[in-house]
Amino acid sequence: MDSTEIGLWGVPLAMLGGAIRVSTPFIFVSLGEAITERSGRINLGLEGTLVFGAMTAYAVAVMTGSPWLGLLAAAAAGLCFGLFHGWICKFRGVNDIAIGIALMLFGSGLAFFFGKPFIQPSAPDLPAIPFGGWSDVPQVQAALNVNVLFLIGAALAVFLWWAFRNTRAGLILRVVGDSSDAARAMGLNPNTVRLLATGLGGALAGIGGAYLSLYYPGSWTEGISSGQGLMAVALVIFARWNPLGCFAAALLFGGAGALGPALQSVGVTQGYYLFYAAPYILTLIIMIATSSPSRSLAGAPGELSITK
Amino acid sequence: MSDRKKAVGVETIGMTMRFGAFTALDDVSIKVPAGSFHALLGENGAGKSTLVKCMMGFYHPTAGDILVDRREVAITSPKDASALGLGMVYQHFTLVPSLTGAENLVIAREKVPGIIDWRKERAALAQFMQRMPFKLPLDVKVAELAAGEKQKLEIIKQLYLGRSFLVLDEPTSVLTPGEAQEVLGLVRGMTKAGDLTVLMISHKFHEVTAFADDITVLRKGRLTGTGKVSELSHKRMAAMMIGDQPIAALDSRAPVPVGARQILTVKALKAPDRTGLKTIHIGALDVKSGEIVGVAGISGNGQKEFLEVLAGQRARDAGDVLVKGSPYGASRAEARTLNVRFIPEEPLRNACAPRMTVAENMAFRTFDLNEAGKPINWIKMSAIRDYAARLVEHFKVKTASLASPISSLSGGNVQRAVLARELTGEVDLLIVSNPCFGLDFSAVAEIRARIMKARNAGAAVLLMSEDLDELLELSDRIFVMSDGALVYETPIAQASVQTIGEHMAGHH
Prior knowledge:
Chain A: It is found in: Cell membrane. Chain A: This is ABC transporter permease. Chain A: It is a multi-pass membrane protein. Chain A: InterPro entries: ABC_transp_permease. The complex is a heterodimer. Chain A is an all-alpha fold. Chain A has one domain: Orthogonal Bundle (ABC transporter involved in vitamin B12 uptake, BtuC), CATH 1.10.3470. Chain A contains 15 helices and 2 strands. A two-stranded antiparallel ribbon of chain A has the order 1-2. In chain A, helix 4 packs antiparallel against helix 5. By secondary structure, chain B is an alpha/beta fold. Chain B has 3 domains: 233 residues, P-loop containing nucleotide triphosphate hydrolases (Rossmann fold, 3-Layer(aba) Sandwich), CATH 3.40.50.300; 171 residues, P-loop containing nucleotide triphosphate hydrolases (Rossmann fold); 74 residues, no CATH class. In chain B, the strands form 4 sheets. A 6-stranded mixed β-sheet of chain B has the order 6-7-8-3-9-10, with helices on both faces. A 6-stranded mixed β-sheet of chain B has the order 16-17-18-13-19-20, with helices on both faces. In chain B, a hairpin with a 2-residue loop joins strand 9 and strand 10. Chain B is globular and about 70 Å long. The chains are: A mainly alpha, B alpha/beta. Chains A and B meet through helix 8 and helix 9 of A and helix 3 of B.
């Protein structure tokens, strides 16, 4: 069997596979950002955290031989970046968006600096579970070869959706994100809550980075993240800060991102570069379609600086 | 939370609070016995909030003691206060808008389990609500509740948290007269039953007379009077509050001349409200020269959006706004040729550039014109200063200098400065919104007098206000706005608070 036999069916199939493969970092970064933004702060530095996480995971996996240790190291590095952002932002007159941009550049730069020696060696991959065993079509098998992190991400989205309304921590996060005054009146310290939320968001972004370097594309290069960290921030906004929405939006983005390669694989030779831009065009279209000049954003946390 | 505590009494002895050289509170002793309804009266800056903030542990008094149930206690933080059963309902809501009522109540509790068992909590809440005098939807986001419901939820929250002494800070400022009656009546009932003690900050004498047992009056940080409500007249209370300063008298109302020219005409106006989910719809509204047309309504019923359309801050979907017969789009040129002036609410935010100087702010309408009203290319700072100096003197704006930023002025003086700017020169149409919100007695009287004077000089005035007393005092006709539409119109002679209140609440 080869790709011509299933013909154009290869395109939706490849998009499904691509959606699952490409979406995983989006899921983690956007869930992390959803937590941070629900606390009333925006962390634009997650792009840098993602790249640094990718480098850290790859380096640790190369040195120890264990992708899981790499994953943990990436999460720890992400946590540090997040906590640093959260700590700086508690000072008066500090703008979270400006700090985020600074950290984005800092994280990428630091990753390139430390990552130079790791461009050559190869690291063990994170495991994937073949769900496509029932079929003997290789495209189906390839599409349904699902990495464990995708499953963890899906479970995490459901868990966060539940936790935002059913746990003390979830409610406190929403209180702080919606009204600092109400939080202070309750005896909560908004800065501490935001520090932890930003730290957690950073750790999740670090895990997203580990997926990039340890599974797909599966190697450490300086161009490993083509702006996924930034797009995930946009994604949180049109997912209306809802974790399930983040998950769905990440899948949509993954699918759109797989459009170009899928068309190429079925023999479309002209203009497929245009389809590589699909996720970006999609971002623009959704942003325009879901915004309005006369109405404020529904569901936005009240303390978020971009919606104030 | 679940056991109903009995009301506690609170007393302060020689409360004094100094902020640097400024004495905000000077040796104030008040006594609120258990189960009583006590009113605290005073002008802005009289020290009312300072006093209650000391009682609630937000401030640490320079001197003085607090007694709860006749025992001396040390209240160093709001936590201490709540442990003693002291709670406060603020003028501005402290509920979290995006959470439901139930979520707001549960998360405010001292001890919240890590994982919330909503089935159990809901059952407990239902049981608690049965004992409460008001019914409320607890599964709706607070943002979607009406102001009255929010206020009730604030009170319920305090009771749910087991507070038995409540400070209510101007609790009815956002309610309709009907809602105010209901909420205060229910609270009154709880004090009579001995379940609650209430200290209410207020400036509405009729509420104080109807519900309170005793009053305490503060002026400039000092206690100037106290006594039983049944033994005091409104006049006596007012005298305690404002002392012997002169109050500007309102001009008598000149009759609207027959056949007065129609100045403002609004026809079939449609515009989206701020959520974008609803539209406001003004069927027909006209204001004639020499009359004040009032628009009543509870905040959030579209008055703000209507005003924004008239001010050019919000796009309209359909309809016409005509001033003296020509279409009006709120551009600077149109406002100038048609003599339209505008006094929005919160003037510092909506009508001033806070960091620019008093003189610059007062010149916003005229800085690019010469004496003859022709546009100029070079701006003369000396002309701006001279112009502002004349206005400051004429309108009695108290400012350290013309060069100080307008944000350094008190609320009343910012409003005076804006009035000076807007009321100088020819005024054919004046659009005003909540002009006296948060101002003290003398400023309020003066600003109302200025508006009346403008009316008598022939200006058409559209006055939107959440203060029904203000509308009844100034207007020639009153409209009621509810749910985005004008639902009721009455000439002032036939206006009744009762009927207006019912239309404000949306049921009639």
